[in-house]
Amino acid sequence: MRYFDSIKKEAIGEMIRFSVVGVLITVIHYVVYWALQLVMNVNIAWTAGYVVGFVVNYYLTAKFIFREKTTAENGAGFGGAHLVNYFLQMGLLNFFIWVGMSPEMAPVGVYAVSVPVNFLLVRFVFKHFKRSH
User: Fold this and answer.
1) Does residue 117 contact residue 88 with C-beta atoms inside 8 Å?
2) Quick one: which H or E segment has residue 93?
3) Is the pTM of this model over 0.85?
């Protein structure tokens, strides 16, 4: 039973650290997006914000959230997970704008759906590559 308690405690710690990093990355992403969407297409602005956040996010995810080394394997997995997340976010952004949300408010809906999905994808990547070594 102690084994399962340890796993539960580890997962809770990861979720808390993921939330802290997620808030920071979300703020970075949103600030870049908000500033740029005033002067350019929302899709380009969203992508620029995503790229800026991605670079910081990988390092913090490896070192702070999952306490792992950055490796080619988890880097590729992280990139793949975020590619899925990026397309999910782009689809959601355009959907929420299409249904009438303002470009400034649409990210709220995007984050509500994509953040839990992203946590599961990224956690899988870091746990999968940790076990394979």
Assistant:
1) yes
2) helix 72-98
3) no
User: Residue 11 corresponds to which amino acid?
Assistant: A
Contacts of 131 (CB under 8 A, 6+ apart): none
Number of Cβ atoms within 10 Å of the Cβ of 72: 8
As given in the structure block, the two tokens for residue 39 are 């002067």
Token output for 83:
């590619």
Do residues 37 and 48 make contact, with C-beta atoms less than 8 angstroms apart? no
Q: Are 68 and 126 in contact (CB under 8 A)?
A: yes
Residue 50 — pLDDT band, cuts 50, 70, 90?
very high
Distance, CA of 83 to CA of 60 (rounded, Å): 18
Each residue's pLDDT tens digit, 92-111: 999 999 999 999 999 999 99
